[in-house]
Design goal:
The protein has a single domain, classed as Maf protein (Alpha-Beta Complex). It is of the alpha/beta class and about 200 residues long. It binds inosinic acid.
Length: about 200
Amino acid sequence: MTRPLTEKRLVLATHNAGKAREVAALLADHAIEVVTAGSLGLPVPEETETSFIGNATIKALAAARASGMVSLADDSGFSVAALEGAPGVYTADWAEQPDGTRDYAAAMAKVERLARHSPDRKAWFSCALVLAWPDGHVESFLGESHGQWVWPPRGGKGFGYDPMFVPDGEAQSFAEMDPARKHAISHRAAAFRLLSEACLPRR
Ligand code: IMP
């Protein structure tokens, strides 16, 4: 049975301040306060799974066990049908440079170079959200946003692979559209909606 979230505070298993802000804003609507794994000095576990849910589960359980509090983790990425779902869980790795910085123009160019020979342009973003309790119970949710990859990249808003993705039913790429529009239809919004319907108290 789905376990509801009755606590008013949870740990967000991220060391990324941008993500923390975004999720804190979504949870504030449900009167839930967020503390980050980073601010508690919790260790960062290795993401050794081959699925978004698997990696988000590793992060959420590690934070729940280390903090003794309910924890929420996410894992997300970009998948291309012609590449059998790659880069997938390796989405961030494809942008990694030898000096440790991330170059998304280079990562998008790699996707295009590998996928250009296929007429199949289908692509999708995925976002896994996992809630974990200190006793090991987990609730997992997967949101997806389906569409096509386009080349050359379009638009200067957004981040990551946004400029090469046009969602189904839209004329603009994620990087061209108003951020409010992206947030309404994104994989992250879809996953959060599922989590909220299943586990969060109604206001
Ligand atoms: P992680 O979830 O922090 O491991 O990052 C996943 C990777 O997917 C990063 O490289 C992000 O840039 C990329 N990504 C996740 N969501 C989006 C999105 O909404 N737009 C563009 N790129 C994204």
